[in-house]
Each structure stands twice: as C-alpha cells, then as structure tokens.
Amino acid sequence: MNATSNYVLLILGMALITYLIRAAVFVLGERLPFPPIGRTALSFVPVTVLTAIIVPMTVSPHGETAELTWRNPQLVAALVAIAVCVLTKRPLLTIAVSLAVFFAWQFAVLR
Where do the TM regions start and end (predicted)? Predict the structure, then answer.
C-alpha cells in the first residue's frame, strides 16, 4: 500500500464513523436520552466551533505567526465587531460595521 491508498482508507474510515454516529442519533431519536449536563454541553458546540475557526484566521491571517499589530485588518475588524456587538447587540449592524472597517482598513493602511 502506498501513501495515497492509506489516505483514502483513512478518509473513508473517518467518513464511516461520522456517518454512523450521526445516523445513530437520528435512528435512536428519543430512545437515546441525554442527561441535562450533556444537553447543556452540546448547546456550546456551535459557539466553540465558530470560535475555533475565526480566532486563528483573525490572529494569524497568513497562517504563520500571530500578527497582533494595528496593520492586521482582520484583527482590527474583529475588535470593532466585538465592541459594536457588546454596545448594540444587533448582529446585522455588527457584520456591516466590521466589514466596512475591514475593507477601509485594508484600503487605507495596506496601500
């Protein structure tokens, strides 16, 4: 077996395991009771996954080291998004303002 076939088998194995886990939840449905602490823990999954995706892209946009400077438009826009969200609690306004800041910052600072 070469490396390519190992990767194919690995991907197929992961896909099968993922499918079986998800199918078990749908097939068993209500017969599989979750304890309250399990339901509470599952409610945090979307937030943690989104954070795990966004933070690395914001802190190190080029995939190398952390760029914690004012020249990083992703970081500046993320900080503005946090501030707007805390002050207004309006998601659409937060997105609009942070996108405007990101593009303006890229245009003004990186030129």
Answer: 6-29, 41-59, 79-105
